[in-house]
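re: that chain from earlier
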Amino acid sequence: MQKRMFTPFVTTLRASGRKGLGLNVAVNLVHFLLKGNLTYFDSALGGAGFLISCPIPLPE
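^ sequence. v structure.
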């Protein structure tokens, strides 16, 4: 699932009527709007962790 989690329409709850667009929308917003990256990592406390990195222009 980790390899496909950012793919559109991927969900583990399709039988419950879920669409599976959340992470795809998030990764597209971060990539195209903020010009950054969204990555997944295993949380030491259990569950999922996400890292958002975006370039911030510094004033001259």
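The chain has a mean pLDDT of 84.
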